[in-house]
Design brief:
By secondary structure, this protein is mostly helical. Helix content is 64%, strand content 0%. It has a single domain (63-210), classed as Tetracycline Repressor, domain 2, CATH 1.10.357.
């Protein structure tokens, strides 16, 4: 039976969505143009109108995965703030909640979406990649920018000395990312969910005390 080709809608978006699903199932190595075109229902050559090669598709998937990470972090912040609101939290408590949610959301995404998490950090690049609008969440901030904003709030509320602010995002990010990698690809991947949650909170406690 002859396969029908894709004749409507946004082909680039369809290919990107197929790539995202492939990454979700098997990480960046699973993102293959031929399989993406098969899932989108088009002939293989159709992909080259939108993606020059496999690397271009993986790059786009990486940026989309980064945006999904940002949305997970935003949802974690909203959840923590909602819980705080019940207790009439003050500005300082809300700033702490937002900061901690950046870390817990980051690690939750790594554990629940390991394929997308690996894809988000697969494409080689520099800090420009961490600040592109296409990598942002609903609020317009990328994961790196969400961290920076949370740190700025800690300073504004007097919870963090201004002298410690420069470069703090790199140290906090490195620590949380290191635990994420250990939990999904390293010797901590066998931890029970509750143990992973405990490790997450303890790490963020340590980072917060250090800041």
């Amino acid at each position: 039976m002859k396969r029908e080709t894709y004749r409507h809608g946004n082909l680039r978006q369809a290919l990107l969505e197929a790539g995202i699903e492939l990454a979700r199932e098997g990480g960046p190595d699973a993102v293959v143009l031929r399989e993406a075109t098969r899932r989108a229902g088009v002939v293989p050559n159709a992909a080259y109108r939108h993606f020059a090669d496999r690397n271009a598709l993986v790059h786009a998937v990486s940026l989309a995965a980064m945006a999904e990470l940002a949305r997970t972090m935003e949802a974690e912040q909203a959840d923590r703030l909602a819980r705080r609101a019940a207790g009439d939290a003050n500005a300082a408590e809300e700033a702490r909640a937002r900061f901690r949610a950046v870390g817990t959301g980051y690690l939750r995404f790594a554990r629940t979406e390991p394929g997308l998490f690996r894809a988000a950090f697969f494409v080689p690049g520099d800090m420009v990649e961490a600040e592109l609008p296409v990598s942002a969440g609903e609020g317009g901030l990328t994961p790196f920018q969400l961290l920076g904003a949370a740190l700025d709030e800690l300073v504004a509320c007097g919870l963090m000395p201004a002298g410690r602010r420069p470069g703090a995002e790199f140290l906090a990010w490195s620590s949380v990312h290191g635990l994420a990698v250990l939990l999904i690809d390293g010797p901590l991947r066998g931890l029970a969910p509750e143990q992973a949650e405990d490790a997450t909170e303890l790490l963020i406690d340590m980072i917060e005390r250090g800041l």
